[in-house]
């Protein structure tokens, strides 16, 4: 159970970092496709943000505390932080890579939850995998 709790905290911190990056890109995207990219990043950050509270509650249900500071998130997150304002296409590429990384991370945590018979948690993690699969599809299709 301890390894699952640790993996959940890492995935949670990474998901929060993903949300923050998508929101950051939403605020700062520029270029000829600005309206479309602004809306795409907005849709992504809103979807992820709406999952954060449920994710935190799922962690608490395992009997441990949820991380809740930027310092702790930066220590735990497996996503790289990029403080530079990137060109629009580079934003799409980076967020796609992060979304794919999130989907894989969530698959690993899902398997751990399933091994422990925590099917409610598994269901939540499966829904997050599906959400990231959709985000990746949207980003990948936009890059073509």
Descriptive account of the structure:
The mean pLDDT is 97. With 144 residues, the chain is mostly helical. It has five helices and no strands. α1 (2-28) runs antiparallel to α2 (34-61), α1 (2-28) packs across α3 and α4 (88-115) packs antiparallel against α5. The protein has a single domain, classed as Ferritin, CATH 1.20.1260. It starts with a helix and ends with a helix.
What characteristics describe this protein?
144 residues; mainly alpha; elongated
Outline the secondary-structure elements:
Layout: H1 2-28, H2 34-61, H3 70-76, H4 88-115, H5 119-143
Summarize the structure.
This protein is mainly α and 144 residues long. It has five helices and no strands. Helix 1 packs across helix 3 (70-76), helix 1 (2-28) packs antiparallel against helix 4 (88-115) and helix 2 runs antiparallel to helix 5 (119-143).
